[in-house]
Amino acid sequence: MQATVRTFDPATRAGTVLVDDGVELSYDADALTGTGLRHLRLGQRVQIEVDGSGPTTRVRSLRIYTLRE
């Protein structure tokens, strides 16, 4: 699923993304674990994987959209 970085706190490495359908989801530093990412820019496009649905949805992993494995 694609999203846009809405907020990012460099101290905690947590923030929020805005999914393309307008839903705002939060993420914590665990979502960046193993990605090598140290910083995200506001407005940056990202690829996310989520757990749960509805109000319990949380971002499990996040990576920059243009980076391919």
Automatic annotation (TrEMBL):
Keyword Nucleotidyltransferase assigned: yes
Primary enzyme class: transferase
MF terms in GO: phospholactate guanylyltransferase activity
Keyword Transferase: yes
Key words, A-Z: Nucleotidyltransferase, Transferase
Enzyme Commission number, as recorded: 2.7.7.68
Protein name from the UniProt record: 2-phospho-L-lactate guanylyltransferase
